[in-house]
Amino acid sequence: MSGPSTYNPKSGLEKWIDQRLPLPRLLHDTVHTFPTPRNLNIWYTFGGILTFCLGVQILTGIVLAMHYVANAGLAFNSVESIMRDVNYGWLIRYIHANGASMFFLAVYIHMFRGLYYGSYKAPRELIWILGVLIYLLMMATAFFGYVLPWGQMSFWGATVITNLFSAIPVIGGHIATWLWGDFAVGDATLNRFFSLHYLLPFIIAGVVGLHIWALHVPGNNNPLGIDVKSPQDTVPFHPYYTVKDAFYLCLFVLFFAAFVFYSPDFFGNPDNYIPANPLVTPPDIVPEWYLLPYYAMLRSIPDKLMGVIVMGGAIVTLFLIPWLDTSRVRSCRFRPLMKQFFWGFVVACVLLGYCGAQSVDAVKFGVPMVWVARIASIYYYAFFWLILPIVGLIETPKKLPASIAQSVLGDSAAAAAE
Amino acid sequence: MRKVLPLALLAGLLASTSAFAAEDTARRPVKDVTFSFEGPFGTYDRAALQRGFQVYKEVCATCHGLDHVAFHALNEEGGPGFSEAQAKAIAAGYKIPAEPNDKGELFNDQGVRLTRPGILADAFPNPFPNEQAARAGNGGKLPPDLSMITKARMGGAKYVYSILTGFHEQKPADFEVPEGAYFNPYFEGWAIGMPNTALGANAVTYSDGTKATIEQEAHDVSTFLEWAGEPKMEQRKSMGLSVLIFLVVLSGILFAAYRKIWKDAH
Amino acid sequence: MTATTHDAGTRRDFLYVASGAVGAVGAAAALWPFIDQMNPSAAALALATIEADVAAIQPGQQVVLKWRGHPLFVRRRTETEISEAKSVDVSTLPDPLAFNHNLPDNAPATDANRAIKPELLVLIGVCTHLGCTPTVATPTAPQGEYGGWLCHCHGSQYDTSGRIRKGPAPRNLEVPPYSFLSDTRIKVG
Fold first, then answer.
1. Partners of residue C47 in chain B, C-beta under 8 Å
2. What is the pLDDT of residues A174-216, one digit of tens each?
3. Active-site option among C6, C101, C152, C154
4. 3-class DSSP state for residue C180?
């Protein structure tokens, strides 16, 4: 995709294809000879893991759609018949349901890794922006998907989230009605959500293609955050990273399988095994764990419109990170101050997630959770809008190694920069 | 986390009471009872499933449906282990609302719904024709369907067991039980619509000679309901074991390959 | 040194082959649930065998049941219909085989081989031409020349034993696997 191709078709057939559709050339250059920094660590294997997750969700999703009925009167029963009567239906549904959680777990690790090593900085801004777009599409897809089993949490989650739009002044109510196709979440809503839930993964796959394409122009960032300077700094993607990715993917699948087979309802909510009832709201409406931090932000603001703005702004902010960071150095390995703020940000996100899972008026260890959520939300914003620009200007980074090769292979002093 | 109460009245009651009251009457932790199906290698106790089925059939089924469980599941692998003939006989013992007869009728001359004996493909018929009838027959409260009751409540089978054996705990003097409800501290809000006489000792006579104490009956029916909610559990666990072993082996080989290939690179 | 390099190469090749082979086995095993999910579900299989009471069917009358998604003809034949069916010379039939799932594949299409009890004919009501449902002959509305069934799609005519006599259908009407649970109750499938 970038630089001169090293593909050398051997047989006549390969030459024939290459002149007409250079797909083998593309594959050769992207997954075979692609020069990859030799110092990528475990956190860089999550790109491959995420591709696997997307594939699994699409495959199991297509199968589930063969048996699922998108009708308010039949949806819940059809899911139960998948669990009970369809051959291996229970397995496929458990993979799909837990797969969503695994997908988000992997995407969060992938994003935190990008933040820590400064992978969003020039010339990789578009990779990051496409990544945030994928994340946003994933949240939409997950939300639509969670509605489909038509249990209590499906129904009330859909009601609460779609009502967020009603916070928009003047036209909000009309937008909500338009989303529902009725005057509340109902059969019309379920049908359109099913349609969109089926569509969006393919759009995600398309954006993933762009994300990878954009990655292959500048090549991978790396834990040192310094540019590749010579061929010595890199190894060919295959076999070095195919085998490394395969090994860590296998460990990830092991972790995934442990949930699917031994605790399949771990990430689920018991209320979703009760059919949707528009007349009875469950005492606590909790979104899936991966949306909890945003949910906590939303609830920590007493004003409806402000809550929605704060929550939406938290996601919009992510798009702007490449321009909010003023540091010349990419990797937090060489940014002693930023490293601490980074871990503070991780803690803030976890705290927000924790607060999002509690009831609104919860008090833990004598502290009202809503105040914890407020402080964590402030930190979230401050991290991007204050810390990232200011620390970049005032911080004195550690000395960068001369090259990746020197750091990895050369004198051990450089390697100790860790 | 507090759980939903599908009883409209009680939910309304909770919503209208203050947060203080809701906290005060939060349900007690489930009783610490053990079941054979717990743990990664746990399986259902067939005898307990069969006894539990008897309790469901002779006691619970008066008010509670089992809408998602089909009779054919009774003789499927990993279930109570009834033979096909037994499952057929059980099905035939239930009256299923009949399809229109040759004249297109659904009701007889007296206006009674026509029925036919159940077959393996049928699910357990609900004791009430619809939700309104169920409420009308239970003082406005809806007895929940039990197909997924252990999945739909925090605590699962232990919760069901605790509720069934929890009626006779000492009621705090200052707790007022609303009319038409019964004291049960394992239920959110402590006031449950299910009568405290619903399951008594010797409510059933076990053919295998097991003594039918309340605890025994509750334990058996909780086992049965766990199976009703998760009939593929045994398949899931046994397949899981092979999958995990396979993945460990594959990880080992991949790790060796990874080490081997990277050895030259450092 | 050369020896170790050679060994290392062999070991590396072995690990490649091993991971590839084990991975392939895993992928193949993982594929099966995705294939098998399209087979009939437990709910469909529970309906694959049906039981029916045939006592009320009068001679000359046919009732149509539904079995595995197809019409199932259960016809109580009159004495005339039976003797008519018996009098046919099997060698003159377009399809000389019984097509009866309760008998070996090569059983000849004698009337005796078409029904367990001569008076009760149980047939799958699917024309062996292109799958339409044939219409049964009654005294007031005869269907075709042979007193059995006529398929209106392309004019295949069946006799009182459900055997093809005229028209494009290549085979006799199929006899499903069935048995008598009692004198008046049959089990199909």
1. 121
2. 999 999 999 999 999 999 999 999 999 999 999 999 999 999 9
3. C154
4. strand
CA distance A101 to B25: 33
Which residues of C are less than 8 Å from A63 in CB distance?
Answer: 34, 37
Is residue B10 one of the residues assigned to a domain?
no
Total domain count, chain B: 1
Which residues does A191 contact at the CB level (< 8 Å), separation at least 6? A70, A71, A181
pLDDT at A4: 74
Q: Could you tell me how many CB contacts below 8 A there are between chain A and chain C?
A: 38
- Cβ neighbours of residue C64 under 8 Å, at least 6 residues apart? C71, C72, C73, C74, C125
pLDDT at residue B18, rounded to an integer: 38
| Separation CA B226–CA B228 (nearest Å) | 5
Would residue B137 count as lying in a domain?
no
Q: Which residues in C lie closer than 8 A to residue A243 (C-beta atoms)? A: 19
Evaluate whether A84 touches B70 at the Cβ level (below 8 Å).
yes
Q: Residue A273 and residue B159: Cα distance in Å, rounded?
A: 15
pLDDT digits (tens, 9 = 90+) for C1-40: 344 455 666 777 888 899 999 999 999 999 999 999 999 9
pLDDT at B14 > cutoff 50: no
Higher pLDDT, residue A148 or B174: A148
Residues 6+ apart with CB under 8 A from C29: B246
Picking from A356, A359, A360, the residue whose alpha carbon sits closest to that of residue A311 is A356
Q: What is the mean pLDDT of residues A160-171?
A: 92
Q: State the fold for domain C44-188.
A: Rieske Iron-sulfur Protein (2.102.10)
- Candidates C15, C19, C37, C38: best to mutate against A (most CBs of A within 10 A) is C37
Query: Taking CA A269 as the corner, what is the angle to CA A267 and CA A271, rounded to the nearest 5 degrees?
Result: 170
Domain contains B13:
no
Q: Is C154 a catalytic residue?
A: yes
Q: Which of B119, B246, B257 sits opposite C16 (nearest CB)?
A: B257
- AA identity, residue B95: K
Chain C residue nearest residue A61, CA to CA: C34
* Residues of chain A contacting residue C43, judged by C-beta atoms under 8 Å apart: 81, 85
The pLDDT score that the predictor gives to residue B233 is 97
Residues B72, C22: C-beta atoms closer than 8 Å = no
What is the Cα–Cα distance from A214 to A223, expressed in whole angstroms?
19
From chain C, the residues in CB contact with B118 under 8 A are none
Contact A86 C37 (CB under 8 A): yes
B253 touches chain C (CB under 8 A): yes
Going by C-alpha positions, the residue among B141, B136, B124, B105 that lies closest to residue B66 is B124
Asked if the C-beta of B265 comes within 8 angstroms of chain C's C-beta atoms, the answer is no
What 8-state DSSP symbol labels residue C175? B
Give the residue-averaged pLDDT of A356-380. 92
Q: Which residue has the tokens 């367990």?
A: C116
- In total, the C-beta contacts within 8 angstroms joining chain A to chain B are 112
User: What CATH number has the domain bearing residue B44?
Assistant: 1.10.760.10
Cis omega before residue A239 (within 30°)? yes
Buried b (16+ CB within 10 A) or exposed e, A358-368: bbeeeeeeeee
- For A59-84, the pLDDT digits (tens) are 999 999 999 999 999 999 999 999 99
- For residue B212, tell me if it sits in a domain: yes
**What's the mean per-residue pLDDT of chain A?**
94
Over residues B24-37, mean pLDDT: 92
Q: Which of B121, B246, B254 is the closest to C47 by Cβ?
A: B121
ipTM above 0.85 for this complex:
yes
Within A23-98, strands assigned E span 35-37
Asked if the bond preceding A123 is cis, omega within 30° of 0, the reply is yes
The predicted-structure confidence for A129-155, as pLDDT tens digits, reads as follows: 999 999 999 999 999 999 999 999 999
Domain interval for residue B220:
23-63+145-232
